[in-house]
Amino acid sequence: MDDSLNFDTLAVRSGTLRSEFGEHSEALFLTSSFVFASAAEAADRFTSSGDYYTYSRFTNPTVTMFQERLAALEGGEACIATASGMAAIMSVVMSALKAGDHLVSSRSLFGSTLGMFSQIFSKFGINTTFVDPTNPDAWKKAVRPETKMFFLETPSNPLTEIADIEAIGAIAHSVNALFVVDNCFCSPALQQPLKLGADIVMHSATKFLDGQGRVLGGALVGSKQFITEKLFPFVRSAGPTLSAFNAWVLLKGMETLSVRIERQSANALEIARWLESDPAVKRVFYPGLQSHPQYEIAKRQQKAGGAIVSFELNGDTPEQMRANAWRVIDSTKICSITGNLGDTRTTITHPATTTHARITPEARADAGITEGLVRLAVGLESATDIRDDIARGLTP
Ligand SMILES: *Cc1c(COP(=O)(O)O)cnc(C)c1O
Q: Atom of ligand 1 at shortest distance to CA of 205?
C-alpha cells in the first residue's frame, strides 16, 4: 500500500493481505506450518530467502499483516513482531549487542525493563549506565568506548518525563550507538520517533495498539537491513514470536488507535487540570499541563499529552502518603485497580507497591516514585464520571 497516505487511512487499510477467498476483513491464519506441493518445493522454500511461509515461528500471514501495518504507522521500512513488549526488548539487545558491549539508558523505565538491564543482561556481560532522560549532557557523559546502544522511554512511566528524542539521537549517532525508543505511551498516533532520529522503535502492543486490554504483544520497527539481517535470525531461532491470534486482535485494535488515543488524551487533560486545582493533591504529572517541566518539548514532539496522568497526594510521612494514595484507589467504583494501561477502561495503580515494587528503594527514590504517587491511565468513559470517581477518596 502507498505509504504516503495519511495515518488514519494506513491504520485501517495498510498491510492487508487477501487470500484466494477474497475475504474483506483480515483472515486469522491459525496454522503452525504450511504445506508444499512437492519435496523439491519444500527444499526450495526452506533455503530461499523469499517471502514464503514455512513455519509460524518464522512467519505467518496474520503476523505479517500486523508487522506491515505497524511499520507503515511508524514510518519505518520493516517491523518484526514479538510475543510481548519485554520479548521485543530481549530480542533487540540479544540481536544487536554482545558480551563487553555497554548500554546507556534512561533511568526512568518500565519496571521489568529496568530489571532486564540491571539484573539479566549484566549476567551476560552487557552493562548499563542509567541517566536522567531529560538531561542530554548526562547521556553524553555516560558514553564509553564500548557503548553500542542508547535506550529511551518517553514519556516515562509513571512520571511522564519527556526526553528530547532529537537531541539524544544526535548524541547516539555521534558515537555510532543504536538508538532504541520505547514508544509505548504515545503510540505512533501521537509521536513518531523514527522521524526524530530513532533507529529502532520498540512497542508493547499490549497497551495502546490493542487498546482494549485483551492480548500481549510487542514489536520492533526500523530499517529493512537491521530487521532482516539482525532481528529476524534471532527471533526465528529463539522463538519469542507473536501468535497469529494475538496479531489478528492487534490488527483490529490499530484501526481505532488514533480515535481512541486522541479522545483519551482529551479526557486525561481535563482530569489533570482538575487534579491540579485540588488542594489534596501535591503535584500532577501530565505533559499537556503548562506546569510540566518539559511542556515545550512535549508540544513539539507529541500531538497530544497522552492518556497517562500521575499525581502525588499530600502527607507528612511516607506512611501517611501511602494511606492517602490507597484511600483514593480503594474509594473508586469505576476505575479498575490493575497494572495495565492503554485500555478503554480507566485503570488506577499505586506504582510504589505494584509496578515498581520489585526495584530497590534507592532506585525507586531515584526515579521519583514516592508512596503518595497514583498513576491513572485514562480510558474512554465520561471524564466527568472519572473525576467524580477519584474525588470520592481525595479527602478523608
Ligand atoms: C508494558 C510496558 C512494557 C512491557 O510490555 P509487555 O507487553 O508487558 O511485555 C515495556 N515498556 C513500557 C513503557 C510498558 O508500559
A: 7
